[in-house]
Design a protein that fits this description.
The protein is an alpha/beta fold. It has one domain: Carbamate kinase. Helix content is 34%, strand content 24%. It contains seven helices and 14 strands. It has helices at residues 17-27, 41-50, 66-90, 129-136, 159-172, 201-209, 217-228; strands spanning 3-9, 35-38, 56-58, 61-63, 95-99, 106-110, 121-126, 140-144, 146-148, 154-156, 176-182, 198-199, 233-237, 247-250. The strands form four sheets. The protein has an eight-stranded mixed β-sheet, with helices on both faces. Helix 1 links the parallel strand 1 (3-9) and strand 2. Helix 1 packs across helix 3 (66-90), helix 2 (41-50) packs across helix 3 (66-90) and helix 5 (159-172) packs parallel to helix 7 (217-228). The chain is globular, with a radius of gyration of 17 Å.
Length: 258
């Protein structure tokens, strides 16, 4: 069984060329090859504002209309992805940039429900062929979270969800997978502001009920728990700790120490 690492890097860590170079040098210290999924929400919001496009969120998730999707593709699948790949190459990593839709890797269905999120997709089908082929050839993959619906339409999909989906996909193919979701907070924090060593679904529900976990951390923990419950080793960490994984370990069921 091969060990693989899936790493999610938020757009807040890729705002400047210096930030990108710094994170690329840290990633170069990790065992290669690996899969990196990156965001770019902050940059997308900034560009949308410059273009006069309104940005709306609901519970930390972006509402995506046609104009916003165009900005997302330009920013995340374009500028950020290619600058990140260039920095990784400079750091000695054999990086290749893709989007989650490439090779039919992840197909999504447009989300429905009481809240209309617009052109937002939730994964419904995955195909690991492209990922496995590139990994076997020693390439580190840098994936932007843009998916497709199978009918030629692009969909915005949460980067944490993409990272968790890829991690589970690789685990299904017999790999031992570590999933690290980087966050500025360095992990999940309790009511005292301390980083929790581990978290399961019951503990998460308690944090939500008390209003401690809210907004952008919600989709991150949702994705982490879904991967942990499929046998993936998951942690929410700070990028500053790389190549170490210090932060909150996400578990399918709370572990009791004696």
């Amino acid at each position: 069984m091969t060990s693989l690492h899936v790493l999610k890097i938020g757009g807040e860590l890729l705002s400047t060329d210096e930030q990108i170079r710094t994170i690329a040098r840290r990633i170069a210290l990790l065992p290669q090859p690996l899969v990196i999924v990156h965001g770019g929400g902050r940059q997308t919001t900034e560009l949308a504002a410059r273009l006069g496009i309104e940005t709306r969120f609901h519970n930390g998730r972006r509402i995506t209309d046609e104009a916003t999707l165009e900005v997302l593709v330009m920013t995340i699948a374009g500028a950020i992805n290619k600058r990140f790949v260039a920095a990784l190459l400079a750091a000695g990593v054999r990086a290749v940039g893709i989007s989650a839709l490439d090779g039919g890797t992840i197909r999504s269905m447009q989300r429905t429900g009481e809240i209309s999120f617009g052109l937002v997709g939730d994964p419904v089908h995955s195909d690991a062929s492209l990922l496995l082929s590139l990994l076997e050839r020693g390439f580190t993959l840098v994936a932007a979270p843009i998916t497709h619906d199978g009918w030629g339409h692009l969909l915005n999909t949460n980067a944490d969800t993409i990272a968790a989906t890829i991690a589970v996909m690789l685990a299904v193919h017999g790999h031992s997978v570590e999933l690290s979701l980087c966050t500025p907070s360095g992990g999940v924090r309790n009511s005292d502001g301390q980083i929790m060593l581990q978290l399961d679904r019951a503990g998460y529900a308690a944090l939500v009920e008390r209003g401690i976990a809210r907004d952008g951390i919600l989709p991150k923990i949702d994705a982490a728990l879904s991967a942990a419950e499929c046998g993936v080793d998951v942690a929410i960490i700070s990028a500053e700790t790389l190549p170490h994984r210090f932060g909150t370990r996400i578990v399918a069921q709370q572990e009791v120490t004696r």
